[in-house]
């Protein structure tokens, strides 16, 4: 939708709102202007993210492009404050073209829910946009080819916090060889580009790792990491997160 049409649609929405509530819900003009500005930013971000997804769907920069069933560009709220980043699509994600929809995804949904959030509040993506055969580890050439898409998504969304799920995501984004055990539990800085302030990055265990090593201790560690994220964002910390 063109900018003028978008603004018109938002204005009509407010006017209708006001009409049906007999003026009870009339916004003051500054609040209304701010809302129009915020809606426009979200709209522009959505268009940019769709452009990136479209490029991903045409991409043949590495061999994975011709092996995939569907590309998995990532999905979520363009205005997300948290961007979860995993390693790469598995079989379920490849079949559906959506990130984190298999068993590891269902556990990620539980983590998000324990945080008092919904999947639609956050953005979810991966280092690789196409499934490596047999779910093998991403190869360096594949990461190098694919990373610019993720970097652009981060730039567009500009989240307050990135949560890197597992060693591949954390090491790639932080450009380090340290283990996930060394990296998790503390904030690091992700540099989105010169002249841009760094984005806080929390590394934690991948939910697929958690499924394979489903101990109380590991679940508690992930919850401790997420509590730090919520505290940093000034969000309330629900009581039931350790379960
Ligand atoms: N594991 C990942 O790293 N990403 C997905 O999308 C699903 C499982």
Give a quick set of tags describing it.
binds uracil; 6-stranded mixed sheet; single chain; Uracil-DNA Glycosylase, subunit E; alpha/beta; 243 residues; 6 strands; 11% strand
How many helical stretches?
A: 9
* List of distinct ligands in this structure: uracil
Poorly predicted regions are none
Give the fraction of residues assigned to helices: 40-55%
Count of extended strands: 6
CATH superfamily: Uracil-DNA glycosylase-like domain
Cα radius of gyration in angstroms: 20 Å
CATH architecture title: 3-Layer(aba) Sandwich
Compute the number of structural domains.
1
Question: Could you characterize what this model shows?
Answer:
- With 243 residues, the chain is an alpha/beta fold.
- It has one domain (59-242): Uracil-DNA Glycosylase, subunit E.
- The chain is built from nine helices and six strands.
- Strand 5 (187-190) and strand 6 (199-204) form a beta hairpin.
- The longest helix is centred in the N-terminal third of the chain and has 30 residues, at 29-58.
- It is globular and about 55 Å long.
- The chain starts with a helix and ends in a 10-residue tail after the last helix.
- The model has no long low-confidence stretch (mean pLDDT 92).
- It binds uracil.
- The site of uracil has 13 residues, from helix 4.
- Uracil (URA) binds at residues 86-90, 93, 99-100, 102, 104-105, 126, 208.
